[in-house]
Amino acid sequence: MISKLTWSVFLMDAVSDADLQETEQVSFPVVLIIDDEMGPRESMRMLLKPVCTVFCAAGVREGIAILKRETPDCVIMDIRMPGMDGIEGLKLLRSLDPDVSVIMLTGYGTLETAREAIRLGANDYLKKPFDAVEMEKIVGENIRRTELARRKRIVQRHLRDLNQTLLDEVGQNRELAALGQASRELAHDLQNPLTIVMGSVNLLSYELKKLEESGLVISGPGEQATDYLQVIENSLIRCRELLQAWRNLGQESGIQLENLHLHRILKPVMSEVRAMAMDRMVLLNEDIRIPTSQRVLVDPLQFPRVVFNLVSNAFESLPEHGGWIRVEVEVQGDRLWIQVQDNGCGMTEEEAKHAFHASFTTKQEQGGSGLGLTITRRILEQHGGGIEFETLPGKGSTFKAWIPAVMVGE
């Protein structure tokens, strides 16, 4: 019998990770079994029925009709069947659904055919007669694989849609010249989360590949891949918020302060920073010395830009190998301090004089725009705060930003 504890992992993930509207909430994973032999087909159906919605078909064409109607999370298909065999069915199935996991059933003497099926796009195979425990493990891993692959496709579509929206907005706005500085700031801020998206997608692809190439358990790479997806989704949400803020230029005055939990503001930003550090193989040290119950008066969209711009500025200054960044957040007296230290290239005395000037950058070859620190200082001043820094050429820099520590408890 299939372990209900094992399968609860899939069911909980299905209903909890619904930040994107396209991610539907489901009660049970859907499994489609295609096999002309009633014995194996019914055995699998009975084993999976307590934890899955199971559909059965005696041939490929019948199975394809069910696939079009039900969108299964996993397909189990026999290789040898009369009429259209499993290999032909696999090609047809892949043309209809590139993401669903396909497990091929193979009997004695057809193992090489099963391996050929893997090369043609199948995800796994089971040998007849199958072992119930092995089937549970393989079916569970492949349902998880389908979920991750579909979520990745949704994220990619959001990226394309966002890019097209930006192009449309620029093309339709005839007064863009009057919004030149604001538009440059928007492009700067969007570049950071989109860079994170691409880095997280690369990490996700690596984890999915490990799932496909080995029989690792669900609690390993699957959970890491889900974390990467969450970082991607958070970055996309921030992109949308920045785009909306740009659209509202001229309609709002100043910043909008809200009494919010500071940890709630910092958590998504630091998740993005960790993803960037992992992608670039940078050592990241965090020291967040703020009680979880503390609140602070900040603009929920603008204040995270301060944290991320400071860290992003540090990333851009690091050496190719051996780079490290330390982020500290604490309250001293009547100020909330955010300190970001790095062992990057640092600045000369002359360069330091222009650090907060728009368009000044020492990182042109890395694509730096010189806007990050300018934006950061302006937001801090709007919060009644400020920024200071220390730097040495070839040794690194330490930036210390602060805002008034106007805090209340729960």
Oligomeric description of these chains: single chain
Number of strands: 12
Please estimate the helix content.
Answer: 40-55%
Please state the CA-atom Rg, rounded to the nearest Å: 26 Å
Major sheet description: 5 strands, parallel
Task: Sum up the overall morphology in one term.
Answer: elongated
SS element count, helices: 12
Low-confidence stretches: 1-26, 216-221, 364-369
Write a brief structural summary:
The protein has twelve helices and twelve strands. It has helices spanning 4-16, 38-48, 60-70, 86-96, 111-119, 132-172, 180-213, 218-247, 262-280, 302-317, 349-353, 372-382; strands at residues 30-34, 53-57, 74-78, 101-106, 124-127, 258-261, 283-289, 295-298, 324-332, 335-342, 386-392, 396-404.
Tell me what the structure shows.
This protein has 410 residues and is α/β, with parallel strands linked by helices. The chain folds into 3 domains: 4-142, Rossmann fold; 144-247; 258-404, Heat Shock Protein 90, CATH 3.30.565.10. Helix content is 51%, strand content 18%. The protein is built from 12 helices and 12 strands. The chain has helices at residues 4-16, 38-48, 60-70, 86-96, 111-119, 132-172, 180-213, 218-247, 262-280, 302-317, 349-353, 372-382, and strands at residues 30-34, 53-57, 74-78, 101-106, 124-127, 258-261, 283-289, 295-298, 324-332, 335-342, 386-392, 396-404. The protein has a 5-stranded parallel β-sheet with strand order 2-1-3-4-5, with helices on both faces. A 5-stranded mixed β-sheet has the order 7-9-10-12-11, with helices on one face. β11 (386-392) and β12 form a beta hairpin. It is elongated, with a radius of gyration of 26 Å. Mean pLDDT is 76; it is low at 1-26, 216-221 and 364-369.
